[in-house]
């Protein structure tokens, strides 16, 4: 089943269950996806939708840290709950060992010899791990391997 269809089905289930938080979060995701489709005059693939959801999760994680720092635990809790809803639609997260294995394979595949080849390695890795691992952490791993 396509990811957009899964989101729409879950939206219907959330309406029937009267789960306001889940319904609101799914509606935000569908709205963002629709906006991207309108802006780009195209239909988004599952990979594009995962990129949208990844961005939404990242925004909420930033909000959680800011709300926590400001002492607004109520808002931080709401954002954390939205992250959990969005995570339901993300692909299975990779373990550290799986990321390390993919990183080693990407370095070999791209023929990377040093830091100047970081872009090549990230270009190989990104499609494989998009939405399945924290790209910031992966970037740090690549830097440490190539240094």
Automatic annotation (TrEMBL):
It holds the Pfam family YqeY. Signal peptide: none annotated. GO terms for molecular function: carbon-nitrogen ligase activity, with glutamine as amido-N-donor. SUPFAM superfamilies: GatB/YqeY motif. It comes from Aliivibrio wodanis. This is Glutamyl-tRNA amidotransferase. Gene3D superfamilies: 1.10.10.410, Uncharacterised protein YqeY/AIM41 PF09424, N-terminal domain.
């Amino acid at each position: 089943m396509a990811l957009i269809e899964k989101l729409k089905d879950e939206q219907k289930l959330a309406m029937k269950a009267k789960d306001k938080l889940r319904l609101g979060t799914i509606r935000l995701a569908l709205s963002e996806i629709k906006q991207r489709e309108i802006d780009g005059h195209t239909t988004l693939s599952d990979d594009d939708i995962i990129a949208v959801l990844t961005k939404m999760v990242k925004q909420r994680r930033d909000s959680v840290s800011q709300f926590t720092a400001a002492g607004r635990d109520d808002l931080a809790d709401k954002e954390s709950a939205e992250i959990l809803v969005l995570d339901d639609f993300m692909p299975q997260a990779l373990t550290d060992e799986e990321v390390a294995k993919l990183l080693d394979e990407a370095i070999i595949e791209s023929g990377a010899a040093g830091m100047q080849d970081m872009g090549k390695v990230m270009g190989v890795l990104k499609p494989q791990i998009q939405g399945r691992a924290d790209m910031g952490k992966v970037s740090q791993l690549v830097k440490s391997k190539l240094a």
